[in-house]
Amino acid sequence: MKITFVKKIHADGTACKKCADVIAKMESAGQMAHISEVLIADERDEKSPGMLLAQQYQVERAPFFVVEKEGEEALIYTVYMKFVKDVLDQKTEESEELKEIMESNDDLDFL
């Protein structure tokens, strides 16, 4: 299995805060050992490896993960907690998953 992690650099050259948060969580949990490749989606360069991968899979937010298993279609994860639960098979708290989903989608709100 190959896992590619894509993080973003904004058009002004600053690092994506959410990407940095995810990296910190992954490092503290020892999950970076599962990552095969880290690519940068640099908004200043549409041909940067991460931007090309985002275009290929029609992903519009970062960070994201591409999980490739031989003979299977690649799976894309834009929610870190779902990736941890589904791919790394590690326990997550539902409240953490929901918080991340809400933070990632400005158009969502509680009813």
Commentary on this structure:
With 111 residues, the chain is an alpha+beta fold. The protein has one domain: Glutaredoxin. 35% of the residues lie in helices and 20% in strands. The chain has helices at 17-28, 49-57, 80-86, 94-104; strands spanning 2-9, 37-42, 64-68, 75-77. The model is unreliable at 107-111 (pLDDT under 50).
Give the class from helix and strand content and strand pairing: alpha+beta
CATH class: Alpha Beta
The oligomeric state is single chain
According to DSSP, the number of beta strands is 4
Shape: globular
How large is the share of residues in beta strands? 15-25%
CATH architecture: 3-Layer(aba) Sandwich
Mean pLDDT: 87
The strand order across the widest sheet is 2-1-3-4
Keywords:
alpha+beta; four-stranded mixed sheet; 35% helix; disordered C terminus; Glutaredoxin; 111 residues; 4 helices; globular
Q: Can you describe this structure in just a few lines?
A:
The radius of gyration is 14 Å and the shape is globular.
SSE diagram, text form:
Elements: E1 2-9, H1 17-28, E2 37-42, H2 49-57, E3 64-68, E4 75-77, H3 80-86, H4 94-104
Parallel strand pairs: 1-2
Antiparallel strand pairs: 1-3, 3-4
